Amino acid sequence: MTPFLFYTLSFLALYGALNTIFRKNPITCAMHLALTMVALAGLFFNIGAYFIAGVQLVVYAGAVMVLFVMVVMLFDNKQTSETKDNKHMAVKVFISVFMLGILSGVIPHSTGFTNKIVAPEVTPTKSLATLLFSDYVLFFEWIGVLLMIVAVGVVLLSRSEDS
Amino acid sequence: MILTSLIALPFIGALIIFCLSEKKASYTAVILSLGYFIFSLSLFFLFDPTNSALQLTEQRQWFPSLGIQYFIGIDGISFWLVLLTSFLFPLCVFYSAFGEEKNQKGFLACLFLLTGFVMGSFLALDGILFYIFFEGSLLPLFFLILLWGGKDRVYASLKFFIYTALGSLFMLVGLLTLMFLVKEQAGEFSANILDFYQLNIPFVGQHLLSTQSLLFFTFFFAFAVKAPLFPFHTWLPLAHVEAPTAGSVFLAAIVLKMGVYGFLRFILPLFPEASFYYAPWLCFLAVFGIIYGALMALAQSDFKKLIAYSSVSHIGYCILGFFVFSHYSLSGGYYQMLTHGLSSAGLFFLVGMISARTHTKQLDHYGGLAQLTPIYSALFFIVSLSAIALPLTGGFISEFLVLFGTFLADIRWVPFAITGVVLGAGYMLFLILKVFFGEVKMQNIPDLNLKEILVMIPIIVLIFMTGIWPNLFFKYSQKSLDQLIDQKGNYNLTVHSPSLEKHKLVSTQGNKK
Amino acid sequence: MKLSFLDFVYTTPLWSIALFSFLPLLTKAVAKGKEMRPLWVISVAFVSFCFSIIALMSLGYTNQLVFSNLLRLDQPAWLFSIVLLFMGIMTLPLLLGKKNHVVHDKFFSEFVFLFMNSVLGLCLITWSNNLISAFIAIEYISLCFYLMIPLAKDRVSSIEAGLKYFVLGSVAAAILLLGLSFVYIAAGSFDFNVILHHSQVLIQKNRLFVLGLSFICIALLFKVAIFPFQFWLPDVYQGSATPLAAFMSSAVKASVLILLLKLVFFGGFITHSGQSLTVLFQWLAILSLIVGHVSALFQDNFKRLLIYSSIGHAGYIIMNLLSPDLFSVSSLFYYLISYGVIQIGAMAHIMFFEGEETTGHSLQSLKGLFKHKPFYALSLTWFLLNLAGIPPTAGFFAKLFVFEALVQKGLWWMLFWGVIGSAVGLAYYLKPIILMFTLPEKEKEVQFEKLPWVTTVIVILLFISLDLSFGAGLLHEWMTQLWTQV
């Protein structure tokens, strides 16, 4: 059951990703990207990372993709339908294959992992939350400040200067 | 303390001059430089000529982890160079002060800085300290040429700076390698020259890439550019022509000697086998430079360029004298440093004086000056006598010694060197004929005024003193020069210091691994 | 692990900056969007930075872990926090320099807010003891810079520069994150100590670990603009406001290199992985040198020339890191500190000539500066000589230490290239100097704006660089001692 799920979801993710790259219509690309996101969320569910799966769905497939589609919507449809150009395709393919080659050469031949996978007694969400508020609380607060900066930045950039 | 003050005083003087007004600056500069010279005369009393060791040394830690120290001292080799510098310094300042150059005090400040750097490089006994002063001297000279020079000064100063700096960079590599070798052989880093002398640098005969050969080349390149030795001399005529008078004097008389001094201080003692092995090539280059310089001088139509090429020619004698490894020729080469310093200083002063009046340096425009300016002509004749190497002048002693030593040690260079002497007489006399005799081509050239005569008189006096009484000068340097030859392959300077400071030499610290 | 009060005490220099940085924003909000006087805003930043420096000085350099091992106040962090804060202080008057011509009038408070946060982020990078700390800190400063760059007065060029930096910086951040995750998979922890502990074994056995570290290196080298990741640098820096470019080129290098030092070089990346990686870094250093110096030779624009020269200097800095011994580390510190001072000093002079644009000015506008304004000509000459590495300047001693370190390791090939680089550098550093000292054509006036704040900065930096050159030995000694206590 699980391998079948894995292969299906991976195939969907890859299909979505490739279509995002190669299709010409922006809406089609956005939709396929959303498909990829959902498939990835499924994969996360599969390995037991429920919290990440949920976050993936809510944040990526929900917020980010909606934002993409909204922006695409704001553009004029006629102009954007021919914006894809596939120059230097050979280079791009080469780089992708190269990366794939590196990863396939590296991952199977690595040994000596010091990470031990321990089944959590509590749900991953709860352990994540515990960590976030005890050991890593600094990061939590820090990212809060970071978001503050983002907010300021958004306001800054969106304001038109009246000289 | 005296040596540190010799180095530091010009820098302080430069600062003082920069802060004063133009008029006061000139007066102050003259007084300071004169006082400096008198101060340096005290070296006569403090220096012990019977001792070939380093004297009046001062040593202080500077970069302990790198082994770079503030180590200065004086011995027979640097003694006369220091005095030559401090002698010409007030002359240059006096000549340039009260002039009509714009930004006078900047000019004088540059001269002070230049003297400070040059003095530092003659007195430094630590490799990196020497390098700092050696390369630092490029800066004031660069600005002297750039700001107060002739028409083509941008190119001249740029070429001078980059060429010499490139050579010095190679020397830096060589110095760092030597420091590293000291670490390997004695256990700690040190840039102290005495530690360098203790090094055992391997040399394999035919091998171009053996350590000693490579180090030899790095140092050689640096000093050959500075000296200058053919074919690395191309910056010199340009720099001389475009530099202001006092700058040319200093350049020819002192700065070139820094390069030659480097041969004596670094190359001969540190790389004896390589020097011996490559000596034929070096002698060839030196002799070629002698003849080439003389021929180029014959062909020149520019007054200053002619004298610049004669400098190239004369320096060739120094190098020839060093690399035939005879006592006589070494002393001759060393003496040539002094006498060439004096004669070229005199010649450049005189050229400056006349071109300030006529505003031209083209020989074609000159003629019959003997009738117009008798005093000037007389002084010019006398100085050129030294360049020709006529007996009674210092130039004769030095060239004779070089030729004598070469005759004894390695006779094959003698015919060419003697040709150089003849050619030297040739171009000088040709110059005199063209400029001073023949039909009068100019009018209303005033003769020398008091200031200029006062500048030239000490030079003339010294030219004769060096010619008539060479022993006075050799007395102070002979021991050190002899040591260079006698201890070849095993050169080591000892330190003679009345203050009983224990000098920490890395190589004697027993840290050998 | 619980938060302790001590954690807050030790990180006072950091969160105090964050607190102070809100002040301009708050006052602007209270004033209903009306812009405050720039002098006031700058003095808030100034007070904040001074306060942090004082706090750091009184904390002293203990080796203290804070916030449950996420941050660490060790000697390099302590030293470089002070250095970075100082660089920030030096940049502040430059921002004031031109009566708001540097940054768009309406956004000055926000700009200073972002600037203070970027300094905070840079300090945090040096304090990081955890991969995620490092990542968040790098994102922090990147974000601040993405927002600061487009705010220059000359909107067109600066927006373009900001966009370029944003796109490329995001790619680098993605690579950083990928590498980070690989390292985590292999080593089992984000903490530097744990990674260092395991790294010797892991580097040999675990290719994923090596790949992860490589990606982290690549991303960090991107920020430092080493070849082949330097392509973004000239356009981005040229488009941003000059004080910002000056600050970025010196401060970002310093902090990211400290991170590189801690993570990669002391992580045993160099020593344990054998010769090949050392060789790779050597190549990168040499090529950065060549690219930087050769490109600078052909530049007509003074600002671009200085920016390309910073690529060359990055090559020299990397040469310092080729083996993790004490001497190299203190040489690195000295180079970073002196380079920071010199670069800000040199680029400050651009502000006099550039007028309203941010794209710098042609070299020709330097012509004849000595006649009109001898002080500025001399100070610019001094800084250029520092950059070129002529004795007896501080820049020379920095290069001397680098060469000495190379000799110690017997890397003659690199020494050769370093020397050649110096010589080539001489050529293009002398060009402006000569131009300054030649006479201008009589009719053209030299366009020069009188900027008292910038002059103040230049004077202070001159003074410091003189100190650095005379005290090079002492400073080097002190830094060697500093590190031995690790």
Question: How is this structure best described in words?
Answer:
The complex is a heterotrimer of chains A (163), B (513) and C (486). The mean pLDDT of chain A is 81. Chain A has helices at residues 2-22, 26-47, 50-74, 77-80, 89-106, 124-133, 137-158. The termini of chain A are far apart. Chain A is an all-alpha fold and 163 residues long. Chain A has seven helices and no strands. Chain B is 72% helix and 4% strand. Chain B contains 21 helices and three strands. In chain B, strands 2-1-3 form a three-stranded mixed beta sheet. In chain B, strand 1 and strand 2 form a beta hairpin. In chain B, helix 7 packs antiparallel against helix 8, helix 17 (374-388) runs antiparallel to helix 19 and helix 18 packs antiparallel against helix 19 (414-436). The two termini of chain B are 36 Å apart. Chain C has one domain. Chain C has helices at residues 5-10, 12-30, 38-59, 75-96, 108-127, 131-148, 155-187, 192-205, 207-224, 232-239, 242-265, 269-272, 275-297, 302-319, 326-348, 369-372, 374-388, 394-409, 412-437, 452-470, 472-484, and strands at residues 64-66, 71-73. Chain C has a two-stranded antiparallel ribbon with strand order 1-2. The mean pLDDT of chain C is 82. Chains in contact: A-C, B-C. The interface between B and C is medium-sized, with 33 and 32 residues.
Write the layout of secondary structure elements.
The complex is a heterotrimer of chains A (about 160), B (about 525) and C (about 475).
Chain A lengths: L1 H21 L3 H22 L2 H25 L2 H4 L8 H18 L17 H10 L3 H22 L5
Chain B lengths: L1 H18 L2 H20 L1 H4 L7 E10 L4 E7 L1 H21 L7 H20 L3 H10 L1 H11 L4 H34 L6 H5 L13 H16 L8 H8 L2 H26 L1 H28 L3 H21 L3 H32 L10 H4 L1 H15 L5 H16 L4 H23 L13 H19 L1 H17 L8 E2 L17
Parallel strand pairs in B: 1-3
Antiparallel strand pairs in B: 1-2
Chain C lengths: L4 H6 L1 H19 L7 H22 L4 E3 L4 E3 L1 H22 L11 H20 L3 H18 L6 H33 L4 H14 L1 H18 L7 H8 L2 H24 L3 H4 L2 H23 L4 H18 L6 H23 L20 H4 L1 H15 L5 H16 L2 H26 L14 H19 L1 H13 L2
Antiparallel strand pairs in C: 1-2
Helix pairs in contact in C: 2-3, 2-5, 3-4, 3-5, 4-5, 4-11, 4-15, 4-20, 5-6, 5-11, 6-7, 7-9, 7-10, 9-11, 10-14, 11-14, 11-15, 13-14, 13-19, 14-15, 14-19, 15-17, 15-18, 15-20, 15-21, 17-19, 18-20
